[in-house]
Specification:
The protein is mostly beta strands and about 270 residues long. It is built from two helices and 22 strands.
Length: about 270
């Protein structure tokens, strides 16, 4: 390695020393030659400038404990990340290298990278779901044109239930997809909720992804929707145990109909 940097240090709230904090996310800045590093147990975000490794510069930002994953707003200037056991979303301005907000949300937010959509009422927003409840939470992300809504919870939708890990959208689509793979109810964990961004009041439609996969015995948890580049297809993993059959299910984004199922002995918890 060119350089090894320790993440050991004091926790952001109680100022206690933590000997072995984990790194939960590493993201490359679009503004500076820096890595944004989430240190989980200390609740600190490190901006590690790799321009000159021999004279390494690190900016330490205090956020909230138990940082996990996160993603960019649509401009790729602001990094929004969940402190999931603190029930907060931290917002980092990667250009100014500082914390701009620490927003309270409901129990155990888990955005993955989150989703960027244009809310018909509140403008550009970033979306997270949650492990601990059914809420799908929208945060305003446009401090220039919508300053009153920036970094605040502007809308909360009710999803299928808790146990969500990922939300997904695409600039060419009006769909917002929300998974629930860790929900204890199999009818919820085996389906996917999809909202029409242009008509959020209509609620969600549930697609029976696991049923479409046509698998045998197993939990068949539907997890992590991902778009193809064009935004015309959404791919879902259907997870069962190591010795059970899993699959990848491809759905037409416009019609929300099954397009293809990929399965076989080589597809193990894809």
């Amino acid at each position: 390695p060119i350089k090894v940097v320790s993440t050991r240090g004091m926790t952001v709230d109680t100022q206690e020393y933590h000997p072995e904090p984990r790194v939960a996310a590493i993201v490359a800045s679009h503004e500076h030659p820096e890595f944004i590093v989430n240190v989980k147990e200390t609740g600190k975000i490190l901006l590690v400038n790799y321009e000159d490794p021999e004279n390494l510069r690190t900016t330490t930002i205090g956020a909230a404990r138990f940082l996990h994953d996160g993603g960019w707003d649509v401009t790729k200037r602001y990094f929004l990340t969940a402190a999931n056991q603190s029930d907060k979303i931290a917002v980092i301005d990667s250009h100014e290298r500082k914390l701009v907000a620490l927003t309270d949300v409901t129990k155990i937010p888990h955005p993955g990278r989150g989703a960027n959509i244009v809310d018909p009422e509140f403008g550009p927003v970033w979306v997270t779901s949650a492990l601990g409840n059914a809420n799908v939470t929208f945060l305003g992300t446009d401090p220039q044109s919508h300053p009153d809504h920036a970094w605040k919870v502007v809308r909360t939708l009710e999803g299928q239930g808790g146990g969500s890990l990922f939300v997904k959208s695409h600039p060419e689509s009006s769909n917002l997809w929300v998974d629930t793979p860790l929900n204890p109810d199999a009818t919820i964990s085996q389906g996917i909720a999809v909202y029409d961004v242009k008509n959020l009041a209509a609620g969600y439609e549930v697609l029976p992804i696991a049923e479409w996969a046509g698998l045998g015995e197993g939990p068949k948890r539907v997890v992590q929707p991902e778009y193809n580049k064009a935004g015309t297809e959404v791919w879902f993993s259907v997870w069962s145990g190591k010795g059970q059959e899993s699959a990848i299910v491809v759905v037409d984004d416009k019609t929300r109909q099954l397009k293809h199922v990929i399965k076989g002995p080589e597809i193990v918890t894809p």
